[in-house]
Design a protein that fits this description.
It comes from Rothia mucilaginosa. The chain is 13% helix and 35% strand. It is mainly beta. The protein folds into four domains: 90 residues; 91 residues, Phage tail protein beta-alpha-beta fold, CATH 3.55.50; 85 residues, no CATH class; 65 residues.
Length: 364
């Protein structure tokens, strides 16, 4: 992949300048968290800072990614030798962090999650009552498949980004930005099964295929748990206390290893102890037990090669579950982030970062 210059865009997404003459450029995009970038321009004069000031808070893009980055920092680092200017920033998901949940005093009980998010986006960003808060540049793709009956979230002191990240985490999905019709659009998307399980397309990183290096294999029972008590309390004067016991088939006698789980429910004044409430608590327990399972853990670095292609419509993408294999032992991992790196010394390198911690099914 060749990259000679980076285009700078204004707040109407019109190209206004380009950045070139750099010695290194690192662009990292992430599954749920905010991505970031750094450009290093060597042998620079401090006077360059005045010229680059016009780039602050503007956007940059590269042809190999649909994400958009925002220039947030321009720094000069000088000395007797090797002086350089650094341009740094984060991706456009940070726009959501520019608006706090001020028009949204509570999350109402009843509307589905997609209805809540669309209303929040409209009230805080797209069409707020205080027009100075409006950001016309951005749009939100409706996550229409999210039909759970209630989103439980305490809005106090939080931003729109906090709420969106929370939803991405509980629904086990990614959050990204892309351009369409002159707007930056926010989109939740579901990761794919790319481990070969269930006949899915297999993406397997291993020593045998020279796609995995610096490998560590580990198996431990120190964090193993067999039984989870999902704890909630509420009702009038917190008079209702529920500890729903969720155990696997090993949860007996000496082999039983217990833990508490807090589902994070808010607004529990109407809590009652009934079978429907207990049933809704059980997925939290199962998910927690899965994370504390007795499993083989394999970590390593993925080497760049021609076996697999990265991209949302390619072999693997952010959030996809892939396989790691060492000595016949297989472990599954999520693509946590992907880095594009260009340097004068090494040229282009592209590599994913894997999260091999257990990831269970969604709570919902």
């Amino acid at each position: 992949m060749y990259l000679e210059s980076v285009t700078v865009y204004d707040h109407s997404l019109n190209p206004v300048a380009s950045i070139h003459g750099w010695s290194s450029f690192i662009w990292t995009e992430r599954y749920q968290e905010v991505g970031e970038f750094e450009i290093r321009i060597p042998d620079s004069d401090p006077d360059l800072l005045g010229y680059l000031d016009d780039y602050m808070d503007k956007f940059i893009k590269i042809p190999y990614s649909e994400e958009t980055m925002i220039i947030e920092e321009i720094a000069y680092e000088g000395g007797r030798s090797d002086s350089a200017v650094y341009i740094r920033g984060r991706d456009a998901k940070t726009i959501l962090n520019r608006r706090v949940l001020v028009a949204t005093s509570t999350i109402p009980y009843g509307p589905t999650t997609d209805e809540v998010l669309r209303q929040v986006f409209d009230d805080e960003i797209a069409n707020p009552s205080e027009k100075g808060r409006q950001i016309d540049l951005v749009r939100f793709d409706n996550p229409s498949s999210w039909k759970t009956h209630h989103l439980d979230y305490d809005v106090k002191g939080h931003s729109v980004w906090d709420l969106f990240l929370y939803c991405a985490q509980i629904y086990r999905c990614g959050l990204r930005t892309y351009w369409r019709d002159g707007k930056i659009r926010f989109q939740f998307w579901g990761p794919r099964e790319r481990s070969g399980v269930g006949g899915s397309f297999p993406v397997v990183f291993s020593e045998e295929t020279s796609t995995l290096t610096n490998i560590v294999y580990r198996k431990t029972s120190a964090t193993y748990r067999t039984s989870a008590y999902v704890h909630v309390e509420g009702g009038p004067n917190n008079s209702v206390v529920i500890n729903e016991d969720v155990s696997n088939r090993f949860g007996k006698g000496l082999n039983r290893r217990e833990m508490f789980v807090d589902p994070g429910w808010q607004n529990m004044s109407q809590l009652s102890d009934n079978s429907a409430i207990r049933q809704s608590l059980r997925p939290y327990g199962r998910s927690a037990l899965y994370k504390q399972a007795f499993f083989d853990n394999i970590t390593g670095e993925v080497k760049r090669n021609g076996l697999y292609t990265y991209g949302i419509d390619q072999d693997f993408f952010l959030g996809d579950r892939v396989a790691l294999e060492v000595g016949g032992r297989r472990q599954y991992a999520r693509i946590k982030e992907y880095t594009f790196s260009w340097t004068i010394e090494t040229g282009f390198i592209g590599y994913p970062t894997l999260d091999s911690s257990p990831v269970g099914d969604t709570f919902m």
